[in-house]
Write a structure and sequence with these properties.
The complex is a heterodimer. Chain A is of the alpha/beta class. Helices cover 44% and strands 11% of the residues of chain A. In chain A, the strands form two sheets. Chain A has a six-stranded parallel sheet, with helices on both faces. A two-stranded antiparallel sheet of chain A has the order 5-6. By secondary structure, chain B is an alpha/beta fold. Chain B contains 13 helices and 14 strands. The chains are: A alpha/beta, B alpha/beta.
Chain lengths: 330, 352
């Protein structure tokens, strides 16, 4: 597949935007104004943007605790995300959810939840609703390698398969669940995507640090689903650069090596793709600089918005436990 | 028009009428279309509404609850059914971290109008893991509504209301009530959640009950009336929200309260009722508020080991007598029972 120049540039822009947002958070986190757990997507940008740009706003998506990149790739509002992380009234969840509970239903991002595998069956249920409505849209479940060790995954994949549901599973395999390497969690030699295929969900294994490869695989998977052929699973290999939760590097604490990190840093998706576009003369260095300046300006504005937004009134903590709107039936 | 039908038939009618009125309503669960049709409560629904809207599922309690949540977020109104509450324990992540939280934690965006029917019971050797009455767990979680009907009329009206409520509702059906008959309107008449019903007017003591304990309360009250003791019976109908004003009003009138619960004693709904009454009604109490619930042990299986396990009418009557300073001979309550202690009637003859 050849992808257009415009799309190539969007892939690069999307990755840079995620990286710069996450670095902006990491830089400001020690100020103590973002008072919630923080799972950054640095290193995993290509996987998110490649899928995000293959989806339409009418397609739906759910994600888990490390969701910033998925939310932004799906088109989620940056200001509302940062305000949510700052606990502000203007946050996408009105300050109730923080970094791990992002939502922007206008662009089909239906929610990220914090318990590993918790949102998987929810994504499958969204797929069921699309099938019942005879919709052509796709429900996307962003997840990680750890979630495949939860019972909910098997139950979800099994049901998606048995009912032929329009569900796209995107598994970012970053090798770690908190500090636990895949080798202590799953048998040696297992191919995750092959295991999923055995459940009845067709799959593919893709370099998750190659945004174009991810995009192309996502487009093919989405075509398969829109043609009514049921769910699809993409395993995207990638790597988490920073600590599981927080703004720092943690190669020094003993659960992984500096060498391993450096190896993956060589496979940083952003410079790799940028060089490719420069070589192919899709853009020049000046245009890259302009792109970065533009993104930085947007991010600064979004941080200013978050910082300057008011906190919710404290009585909001004791309101809105139930939806009070009348049901559809009279 | 009202007719006499069973509790189970009332459930089936509520499902049927709501599905006819709203095509967004779907019904699923293990066995909803099998020959037994969840004790008859889903009989004929698949034939009438098709296998897209009424379907059997994999044995996946947790994910299927999440599937219901996801569908509900996109405008579907799922009714899930579990033949035994105990199996639903596998779905606590989806219920507690998902359904109960969604609307609140996303700042009011998204709603989860899902109804989860859980059948629970006692007796016939159901034993430690097939007879648990865990309503207190659900009532403890903010964001859930918990419904526990005792009559056929309430089963229908409260299920209709639960389905049309925009929030997650845990609808608890006591198996011993499925064959209880009562007058039920043919119309789809909804009964609001959170409103208790005064089943008997009385002056000496308030019996607060819900679900199957309402039946035992009625037997006890009938006997106590013959002993010149006048009981007021309050059927809570829903335990979350709980109709506190009706409870307080009745206790203010009688000055005595006995709370009855189908679950184990410690941490029970009955315990919460006693605590709130102690907080709110202290000055008007004529004696210490009391409760009767199941012992803090799992239910055993053997016919012999269940003989003294459950709270029955004679225990209720004896406790009321004690609270009024009366010693009562409750033997008539025991001898009038026509069935063995582990079944509600001849219709309940296993294997269940």
């Amino acid at each position: 597949m050849t992808i257009s120049k415009a799309l190539s540039i969007e892939l690069l822009r999307g990755m840079k935007r995620i990286r710069l947002v996450e670095e902006g958070i990491a830089e400001r986190y020690p100020q103590g104004k973002m008072r919630c757990p923080m799972h950054l997507s640095i290193g995993q940008e290509a996987a998110a943007i490649g899928v995000g740009l293959a989806l339409k706003h009418s397609d739906l998506a759910v994600s888990s605790h490390r969701a910033h990149a998925h939310y932004l790739s799906k088109g989620g509002d940056l200001k509302a995300m940062l305000a949510e992380i700052y606990g502000k009234a203007t946050g996408c969840s009105s300050g109730r959810g923080g970094s791990m509970h992002l939502i922007d239903t206008k662009v089909g991002f239906m929610g990220s939840t914090a318990i590993v595998s918790n949102s998987m069956p929810v994504g499958v249920g969204l797929g069921l609703s699309l099938q019942l409505r005879k919709s052509n849209a796709v429900s996307t479940v962003f997840c990680g390698d750890g979630s495949l060790e939860e019972g909910a995954f098997y139950e979800s994949a099994n049901f998606a398969s048995v009912r032929n549901l329009p569900v796209l599973f995107i598994c970012e395999n970053n090798l770690y669940s908190v500090y636990s390497h895949l080798r202590v969690r799953q048998p040696m030699g297992r191919k995750i995507h092959k295991m999923v295929e055995a459940i009845g969900v067709p799959s593919a294994l893709v370099d998750g640090n190659d945004p174009q490869a991810v995009y192309e695989a996502a487009v093919a998977a989405i075509d398969h689903i829109r043609q009514g052929q049921g769910p699809f699973f993409l395993e995207l290999t990638t790597y988490r650069w920073r600590e599981h939760c927080g703004p720092n590097y943690d190669n020094n604490i003993g659960y992984r090596t500096e060498e391993e990190f450096q190896e993956w840093k060589q496979k940083d998706p952003i410079p790799r793709f940028e060089e490719k576009l420069l070589t192919e003369r899709m853009l020049d260095r000046l245009e890259v600089k302009d792109m970065e300046d533009e993104i930085q300006a947007e991010i600064q504005t979004a941080f200013d918005f978050a910082e300057n937004s008011p906190y919710p009134e404290s009585e909001q903590a004791f309101q809105g436990i139930f939806s009070e709107k009348a049901g559809s039936y009279e | 028009m009202n007719r006499i039908i069973t509790f189970a038939e009332a459930i089936r009618e509520a499902l049927d009428q709501s599905m006819a009125a709203d095509e967004n309503i779907i019904v699923f669960g293990l066995g909803v279309d099998d020959p037994k049709a969840i004790f008859g409560t889903t009989a004929g629904l698949q034939q009438k509404y098709g296998s897209e809207r009424v379907f059997d599922t994999p044995t996946s309690e947790n994910a299927m609850t999440g599937v219901g949540i996801g569908a509900a977020l996109n405008g579907i109104r799922p009714v899930m059914v579990h033949q035994r509450l105990d199996f639903f324990l596998l779905a606590m992540d989806q219920l507690v971290n998902g359904a109960a939280k969604w609307h609140f934690m996303f700042g009011g965006q998204g709603k989860v109008p899902i109804t989860i029917r859980l059948i629970m019971g006692r007796g016939w050797g159901q034993g430690p893991t097939h007879s648990q009455n865990l309503q207190a767990w659900f009532a403890h979680i903010p964001g859930l509504k918990v419904v526990m009907p005792a009559t056929a009329e309430d089963a229908k009206g409260l299920l209709l209301e639960s389905i049309y409520d925009d929030n997650p509702v845990v609808f608890l059906e006591h198996r011993w009530l499925h064959n209880v008959k009562g007058e039920v309107s043919e119309e789809p008449k909804r009964i609001p959640l959170g409103k208790a019903r005064k089943l008997r007017e009385g002056v000496d003591i308030t019996l607060v009950a819900f679900s199957y304990m309402v039946v035992e309360a009625i037997h006890a009250a009938d006997f106590l009336a013959s002993q010149d003791i006048s009981c007021e019976i309050l059927d809570l109908r829903t335990i979350a929200p709980l109709d506190w004003p009706s409870v307080f009003e009745s206790v203010a009138k009688t000055g005595r309260v006995l709370a009855l619960d189908t679950g184990t004693t410690t941490g029970s709904v009955a315990g919460e009722i006693i605590a709130r009454i102690a907080d709110e009604c202290w000055d008007g109490l004529k004696c210490a508020p009391q409760r009767l619930a199941m012992p803090d042990y799992p239910e055993s299986t053997s016919f012999a080991l269940t003989a003294d396990y459950h709270i029955r009418a004679e225990h209720v009557a004896a406790k009321v007598g004690q609270m009024l300073g009366r010693t009562l001979d409750t033997e008539p309550l025991i001898t009038q029972r026509e069935h063995p202690h582990d079944v509600p009637g001849d219709w309940f003859n296993g294997p269940f």
